[in-house]
## 1
Amino acid sequence: MYIIRADNLRHSYWRSASAGYSLDGVSLTVQPGEMLAILGRNGSGKTTLARHLNVLVPIQEGELTVAGLDARQQSNVWKIRRTCGMVFQNPDNQFVSSVVEEDLAFGPENYGESGDAVAERVRRVLEAVGMSGFERRSPHLLSGGQKQRIAIAGVLALDPQVLILDEATAMLDPQGRQEVLEILRRLRDGGEKTLVMITHYAEEAAMAHRVAVMEGGKLLGEGPPRQVLADRELLDRAGLLPPMAVRAFYDLEREGIRLPACPLTMEELVDMLCPLS
Amino acid sequence: MTGLPAGLYQPGDSVLHRLDPRAKLLALFLLLGAVIAADNLLGCAAVLLFVGWIVGLSGLPLGTALGSAARLRWFFLLIFLMNLFFYAPEEAWAVWWVFRPSGKGLVQGALVVFRVFLLLAAGNVLTLTTPPMALTDGMEWLLKPLGRLKIPVGQVAMILSVAIQFIPVLLEETETIRRAQMARGARFDSSRLWEKAGAVLPLVVPVFLAAFQRADELALAMEARGYRPGLPRPRKEERPFRRADWMALSVCVLLCVLAFAPV
Amino acid sequence: MSLELREVVLTYAPHTALECRALDGVSLRVEDGEFVGIMGRTGCGKSTLLQVAAGLMRPAEGTVLVDGEDIYAPGYRRSRLCERMGVLFQYPEKQLFETTVEREVSFALRHTDLTMAERRERVCRALELVGFDYQKVREQSPLGFSGGEKRRLAIAGVLAARPGILLLDEPIAGLDPVGRQEFLALTDRLCGEGVTVLLVSHNADALADHARRIVILENGVLAADGPVEQVFSRREELARWGVSPGQAAECAEQLRTRGEEVPPDVIRYGELLPYLLRMGRRRER
């Protein structure tokens, strides 16, 4: 049973084939509880794909099923948006209120919930992103990393099965990025949410269960990170760079030194080269 | 960022913070009436005292409460001078080119500045002590009668509330773009009027584009969180006005009567 | 072209409860043709420093000298500064507004005495530097380009004035890896031609590879200033300033904690590799 199943999705913002497709025949499946990274450079079509998963753009060609719901049916759109939460790139453009707790309640209220149940949920999601105590603060005055954590909480407040992150770390400083990645790591290990992470950092994709590489609106390849991120030829075709650890793996290999597996992070590389005894 | 954005809600626990947003909005309208009507010394003193009193009650620092009103000092000076020189030309003390300062103009100018300043300060206190979504719900409730005229009241209230919040962000963005264009040789600070006018386009076009892009992204983010324009959001438990709310309204009604009453 | 800041103090919202010292007595001298990286946590005053240096925010105290001339002195003409100094703000693609690429890129040249032919020559060259074909794009609308292309156009708009100093505020944020490499290669090339470069970035790996000198700000104070290798080897202080010295340096540190002998000035991948090879060979045996 797949939670997301896309079949031959095709999309053009200009609605004409001559202008080119931003999605050009993408087929993809995601399993419940899985963390999928969609890796691609700017303009590869990864954001368009992400917006399809939440039906923020209409399905032009192909099929898309989310949690058993056909996305082409207008009546399913709101149920799908409840199932799939989405966090956007710019932390400043996602808040509807200048008070954190009001902003977090926005989603549930749109689905007709109110009162104590919402308050309890707000408390829980704030705790989940490590921001308890920020209820009365203004999101606009928080750091970039904190803003994105609130944005994630705002989406979690709807208790979606799937969480889509559209380059959610691209505009953050290194510290903010670490904060957000830490939340994602926790959600991944919790196993309750399906995570779809859109990124152009191969280092970030390494934390996913599976990586799909996009370029020119097409899926160039997919598989476990250790296979995809070690495929230099594939990454090169997608205009991406392998993680530094992968680069080291091949540089060692050229010198005749063969490691047991290709490391994805520098920590793994260090563990392989000088294991703790 | 050049300081905190003006008018954004400041969490607190004052009497004003605890008042019902609907009562506060109604009170502001009553105050509006009172301030406009006040044209004698007694009326003016009463509204001035009242606004001073609510600023005190809000527990906010004076600078914050009067922030946005104080920022308009050049505007105030302009309307004051306009009134001084042009309000009652037939009673002018002196004539210098088109300028005709008069005693009536002086009083009128002072009165206009006084009224606008008080209203801005009162409005500022309202947004500073009321969370935006609560204000949205309050506005929606007040506008409800308009719903019968097929006006999408809920959407109007939501647009107003979100727009208020985006003002500081857009102001900051405008400042950044202004500096960026200055670095490219745009002459905003030129003393020549025609150069200044010519420099407007490089500022206005990018600011509009940025505003549209932000609005577009925000709309997407709101839709993704299930916002459906036109569908009613759940009513917060419509609790009746409490004693404090009635008292606030009574005081404002009293103020109105006082201001309208001929001396 | 050289740039010097002397004891610069800048305060936001002075005399209010929100008063905040963005720059607190910063002195910095950058020589002709240097490539300086500026780092520090968000809000430490990096962007403010660039804007003060660019003549866009008058400091409360202190002076800024460009080629020995005080740019905030009463008689100094701003228009001359625009020709000498190129400033790239964060997300510069936002500043585009003209109807054609040609007009956009030549915006900074409007008030110069250049002839039409000279202007066209400069625009053409600037577009080439960022990888556009002048004839192909000159009549197109800048607003129709993609995000990454718009940024390149904005860069061309800055380069068209042939500035002697480039002030770059997070120019690679949000770019994909190839875009980042292209931009840094361009900056290197300009620096090689004698342009002085000040680049603000959080990307320590990029700065280690391209900058020769690093300046670190903390709470508006100059916390460190020196050659890359020297600054990036002060590990404990870096952590306090909220600066990570980059992946290669982090890896070297991990190896040290496991008893390997890796000198502290190993901060780039190229310098790290020989040590990795040495350990790899030992592991083989």
## 2
Amino acid sequence: MAAPGGFSGTDFKQEDTVFFGFTRTQLAAFAIMLAFIAISPFFLYPVFLMKVLCFALFACAFNLLIGYVGLLSFGHAAYFGMGGYLAGHAAKVWGLPPELAILIGGAVGAGLGLVIGAIAIRRQGIYFAMITLAFAQMVYFFCLQAEFTGGEDGIQAIPRGVLFGVFDLRSDMTMYWVVAAVFLIGFLLIHRIIHSPFGMVLKSIRENEPRATSLGYRTDDYKLMAFVLSAALSGVAGGTKAIVFGIATLTDVFWTMSGEVVLMSLVGGLGTIFGPVMGAAVIITMQNYLAEFGAWVTVIQGVIFVLCVLAFRRGIVGEIGNWLRVRL
Amino acid sequence: MSHETTRRAVLGAAATAPVWGALPYRSAKAQAANTIRIGVMNDQSGLYRDISGPGSTQAVRLAVQESGITQRGVNVEVVQADHQNRPDVGSTVVRQWIDRDGIDVIVDVPTSSVALAVNTIVRERNKVFLASGPATSDLTGAQCSPNTVHWTYDTWMLARGTGGAMVAAGGQTWFFITADYAFGHALERDTSEFVRQAGGRILGSVRTPFPGTTDFSSFLVQAQASRAQVVGLANAGGDTINSIKQAAEFGLTRRGVRLAGLLVFITDVHSLGLQTAQGLVLTETFYWDLNDRTRAFTQRLGPVPGNLRPSMVQAGCYSAVLHYLKAVGEMGVAAAKASGVDAVNRMKAMPTSDDAFGEGTIRPDGRKIHPAYLFQVKAPNESRYAWDYYTLLQTVPADQAFRPLAAGGCALVRS
């Protein structure tokens, strides 16, 4: 699939990386994000912020694939949702501590990603998207029918548990710091991946796959690896969400969730590291604070999507970056 | 670091700023101790909008007005939200309502997955949950809570009403069209049991893929071939609507086969039209035209949004909030706000009485008890005025309408 326009241009100012692959501007943006994460729970509702962070990680994981490898997966709900189900099952039925439950969520995402990815990366563009969607629907039907998922009632009353046997997560603030840590680890991991030699190869595949092949890279292996990483991080995000809310339900494996993560990445800015975070924040904020307006939530979401495609195709962060001529 | 870079950094960071301003910060700190806050949460945009939606809020407002509690100096605030039938949205809203906005009572909440999530949160925070919209009988069974009253109906009662009473009303042989997921299976299983208990026979069943089945013709043909007197529709929402429409097209009902809808509301009948829905048999606990009291209630409520008559879910919201406010009036606002369990216990200790459901009680497991009614949808020529839709076939008395207390497996009952 062709790379979405805008972020591969050459008109950006050349900035040196100063720390951990960040340019100076990115570092400043990261510091502000960090400050926001640190301060916000004191004046915003922590449970809401945890939801934003879970979806931000999910969107970042998705963006790793579309933004940096140019693969549009339309089935990321499968990894997110299954991660949530297995993490919930682990915490509730097997009685595992939350840290293990979340890791199990990630492992399930990785496992599913390996199987689905191995088949899907053999095709490109719309076929790739359709294959991932088809597999995600299979996962959805599995979840609908399987015993352990509780069908349409979902897994309910998942205990938050005690982290490392020390931190009681029943307190929203403690839970918040854990989610913030999970998000930051995921975010920095993705950032690290993008700026590693491995990430350079991924970007070269995005720009011109035949050329990458001609240079001797086995592009399929790279794509699969990126797919598995993305799926694993989606699973971690789903698992964390299940632990936070104490529920894992069909909403998270349904195809609309796959669509929502596309919307988040698009609104924030594809192929920017801060874009998905921004997009997730905007979309979740809308869903949350416009809840009382009912049907208008979907209408407004639709309008924003149309506006985004028509007026600012690079997304919020992408446009700001383009305007300042820096990569964000 | 140059001046240039700093400026840019600030602007760059503004990347995350629009979100900050978009978050309205609602403070609940200044809440008066003398205010009861009611949060009505349901589906305001999707398939359950007509049975709950803004009409439920309207019913709650009527209950507040008629309770007379405001004349005694107690403030009551009613807010509403849309859970979009998504448990994560619903649980975020409810947590926020309780933690930040000082909401004392959550009302309605159709969609079982959301209701079960709300049930857990309300119990944790010791508030009150008046469930009118959800169907799952788990709310008074395995997942029963001392903070929850399940008001209007549940799956057990639907199966008992339609399955048991239907046999008594002359439907001896059954065939099921079942949506192939846990809810459909449970409905079929429960209903079959009641049919057998009442002396009826099950001739067969067919499972339809869920979701996504729009063509029910082959299933209806199988149902017809079985020569069953009753075709039970163990499905919900769009599936039920589609199967009823197609059954009408196939002329099933004209040939004397009776369709039994296991989860059909009056608003569904309204949107289907009598021509299509005629002959359908269903169970509800409230019908606006049932008696003088229900008519009086409907009159006072007025048309609900969409120019509809109230559904049983909306009537349940009215009845539940009215009873809750009576309990608050007796025990005092401070005590009711301090402990949801105490408020619910007080509600359980008082008999209920209102125009929508008549006289009733609340059981220790949180189950509200009232009669259920087996209705048959009228043919267009039998309907004499607007919304004259149902003929009453059978009344299931209150003591038989709901699952026996001991059979639910609720931990509150054993203790």
